[in-house]
Amino acid sequence: MRRFPRGGRTALAATVLTLSLALAAGTQAATAAPDGTAPAADSVQQYEVSDVVSAGDRTTLARTGTAIDEVRAETVVITADAAHAERLTDLGYHLTALTGPVERGDVRVAAPEDYHTYDETLAAVAEAEAAYPDLVSSQVIGQSHEGRDIVAVKISANVTVDEDEPEVLFTHNQHAREHLTVEMALYTLTELTSQYGTDTEITTLLDSREVWIVPSVNPDGKVYDQESGSFRSWRKNRQPNEGSSAVGTDLNRNWAYEWGCCGGSSGSPGSDTYRGSGPESGTETAVVADFVRGRTVDGEQQITAHIDFHTYGELVLWPYGYTYDETGPGLTADDAAAFQALGGELADTNGYTPQQSSDLYVTDGSINDWAWADQGIFSYTFEMYPSSGAGGGFYPPGDVIERETSRNREAVVTLLSYADCVYRAAGLESEYCAS
Questions:
Q1: What would the pLDDT profile of 390-400 be if each residue is shown by its tens digit?
Q2: Residue 31 belongs to what domain range?
Q3: How far is it, in rounded angstroms, from Cα 246 to Cα 250?
Q4: Domains identified in the chain, total number
Q5: Which SUPFAM superfamilies does the entry mention (predicted)?
């Protein structure tokens, strides 16, 4: 299996242009032109929105149906088409357009071919399964809206037997344009298999844990964003919305806990944070949710810990996202202490910033909130590299892929080590962990 990414790409810098307010009506389309000029008025691009300082400010902005890409000290970065940018301006926000990546000397932009395609990802899984038949087994858990297979990969010693062991789930690529997360899935698959029998810690963990990896939750969106020859900055799935010409549901606002409760998603099909027509109305959400529910054996959920990988921001996030409160229904002070303790420990391994999800802004219908409240799974989101758009935003250059996936090796191992009882991270083993 190919372990290293193709292509050599270095980091890029965003430059700022003044936004003209003479914008025509926009539609969702591609990124900037190859020469670095601002995209046409019918395309999407990133904007910096000024005077958005607090979590409350960011939540207010998000409630307009705006997807926030990056949080800065007193501003945020968003992706919007011309019509949405003009709407925000009419609401009193000050926007500054950011140009797309450009080539300057030896600085080259990320290209779609830097990342595994959907078909290449499945081929890599099949190659690992053939090379390590005693460790790896894959299964199709359902199909996307357009009929592509959604695959779950199991890694464990004695992989063909469903043993009574703690299970850990890693999900990737809920948002189409976040291709680095698929590379993270393939890195984890490679590292766990190649190091079994060689690395004592990994060997011990795979002897006592079952690991599940879903490399692409949103294959239709991935293909649409990547395989036209240029990136489209597409976020949602590709499911049509009845009564609207707008396509797609934000899968990470479509989960069936506090769905649409709190202004943390949009009811407009044209929004990048459209929550769908109902909980689990997104084809892919329902597939993965059914898979997770199916891991309940004799009334007990076998999956104990989970990371949902996203880009970008270099963050470790935990529930709840729908409320600013640290505790809530089904989330006690001890639960919150365990989330925080393990979240901090995970962040210590990779240099990310640990925080409750709503410290950024309120979201509802997220996978983390659902996994904890509905299934009792200690569920985290990792926002991977870069920390800002200067590192490539959603499309970091290909030559950072190996570095930024391996950066999370210890976090993966740490989560596996606590899968038997996460409360141990907070010193609560006597109350919650069996001897």
A1: 899 999 999 99
A2: 16-110
A3: 12
A4: 2
A5: Zn-dependent exopeptidases (SSF53187)
